[in-house]
Amino acid sequence: MGSFNLAKMTLRSLVSKPATVRYPYEKRDLERLFPQMRGHVVNDIDVCILCGMCQRACPVGAITVDRKAGDWTIDPYRCVQCASCTHECPKDCLSMDVHCTEPATELSVFTMHKDMPAKPAAGAKAAGGAAAKPKRELTPEQQARVEAARKAAAAKKAAKAAQEASE
Ligand code: SF4
Ligand code: SF4
User: For the whole model, what pTM was predicted?
Assistant: First the structure.
């Protein structure tokens, strides 16, 4: 019986399509197949307040927040996709995109910049300081992910509000 089953499985695998795909040349429709998959972290920088909670929550030190410089940086090759940062963010501007970080031949970090409003007391001092950095231009793909993250955060917020209202 065992040999018969083995022969059946072998024959079936000879005629059926492979279960794997030739990544990165072929990609699966992850949104449809694994909508809850944790691919990589996306930050909606327009909503981010550079509070640093995500940096403190990250167990592997993948996020660096420099409020003074207005920079939010993530090392995607250090991130272990635990999603802790997305749970700790007080503005719900962090989310997990289903797509993994693109394969690369060199390690790199990804920085997003935001001009924070200057404190009134420091205004006079800031006038003589360094010029503000220009806002980083996003690629259409990154922009689409930010839009998706924004929608997901709004839905999360609405669900939270609905849950609180029903309690
Ligand atoms: S926790 Fe959220 S708001 Fe705070 S720095 Fe991180 S991404 Fe920005
Ligand atoms: S998903 Fe986890 S490992 Fe990755 S940046 Fe967020 S807290 Fe750090």
Answer: 0.67
